[in-house]
DNA sequence: CCTTGCCTTGACGCTGACGACAAGGTTTAG
DNA sequence: CTAAACCTTGTCGTCAGCGTCAAGGCAAGG
């Protein structure tokens, strides 16, 4: 399978696949004419990468999962390094949820205050003589 | 007050203040020698900007608040345009909270699955002959 | 006079995951 | 013979909010 076909089947672009390769996540063979040749396993790898990136992982976070798949596992999750990343990411998300919750709180109270203290359509004469 | 003093009092850098000016958020006077001169009102403006950016607003989102302050209001929140932005941002945050919650769910179940199906320290011989 | 310490306007770097384009080689079909 | 449709490497652009020089002007103290 050439890069175009893989891109289509994985739902990405050829640019993306070359990008992943440049960052050491995918290792295609090369045919005589220099074309990249991928096997079915690489398709699974690419889909794993995409799934994790969609969830907010960075390329570096993805590496253990790829290695895990490459090691022969049917799932990229089951290796210790992957579990470590999963734990870390879960903690990060929890952290972010907390902060975002606080932000939400603040926005809400700010909005309440704003509505309570409504002032006229902004650029208007100072509240003195109507 | 010159740019250095304002930067210190606002807890930012001179670079940042010039950046805000370049984006039309701050309008300092100029002294004879070309130095930027700020008054106390600009300090409040800068603090408003900082507070909003810290909460995740973009510079464009901040504009109505600055205009509101500049219009003579003691709070940047009370003008209609500011309220619109607050509502929109609150909606965005809620949206983000939802998606992040879903991600958290997925990570959690992925982690559970991973722990249940634990495989040996990753790069190891295929599960066949121990 | 010289240094120190402000200030000025550029202009490039950074982070991440690509998009877009350039200039060219290869293979197949007509 | 040529056009179409693949492929290659390389380089620059994107978004945001600045950090970080670079090169120079201006004011005051010793």
Please tag this protein with its features.
homodimer; 130 residues; Multidrug-efflux Transporter Regulator, Chain: A, Domain 2; two-stranded antiparallel ribbon; disordered C terminus; DNA-binding
Helices, strands, pairings?
The structure is a homodimer of 130-residue chains.
Chain A (H helix, E strand, L loop, with lengths): L2 H8 L3 H9 L6 E2 L5 E2 L2 H15 L4 H12 L9 H37 L14
Antiparallel strand pairs in A: 1-2
Helix pairs in contact in A: 3-4
Chain B binds a DNA duplex (30 and 30 nucleotides) through helix 2.
Mind explaining what this structure looks like?
Two copies of one chain form a homodimer. Chain A is mainly alpha-helical and 130 residues long. Helix content of chain A is 62%, strand content 3%. Chain A has a two-stranded antiparallel ribbon. In chain A, a hairpin with a 5-residue loop joins β1 (29-30) and β2 (36-37). Chain A is elongated, with a radius of gyration of 25 Å. Chain A binds chain B through residues 55-56, 64, 67-68, 71-73, 75, 77-83, 86-87, 89-90, 93-94, 96-97, 100-101, 103-104, 106-108, 110-111, 113-115, 117-119, 121-124, 126, and chain B through 55-56, 64, 67-68, 71-73, 75, 77-83, 86-87, 89-90, 93-94, 96-97, 100-101, 103-104, 106-108, 110-111, 113-115, 117-119, 121-124, 126-127. The structure holds a DNA duplex (30 and 30 nucleotides).
């Amino acid at each position: 399978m050439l890069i175009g076909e893989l891109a289509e089947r994985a739902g990405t672009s050829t640019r993306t696949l070359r990008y992943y390769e440049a960052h050491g996540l995918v290792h295609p063979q090369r045919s005589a004419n220099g074309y990249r040749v991928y096997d079915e396993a690489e398709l699974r790898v690419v889909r794993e990468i995409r799934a994790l990136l969609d969830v907010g992982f960075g390329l570096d976070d993805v590496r253990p999962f790829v290695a895990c798949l490459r090691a022969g596992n049917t799932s990229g999750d089951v290796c210790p390094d992957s579990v470590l990343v999963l734990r870390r990411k879960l903690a990060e998300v929890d952290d972010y949820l907390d902060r975002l919750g606080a932000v939400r709180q603040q926005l809400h109270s700010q909005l309440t205050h704003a509505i309570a203290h409504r002032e006229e359509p902004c650029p208007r004469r100072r509240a003195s003589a109507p």
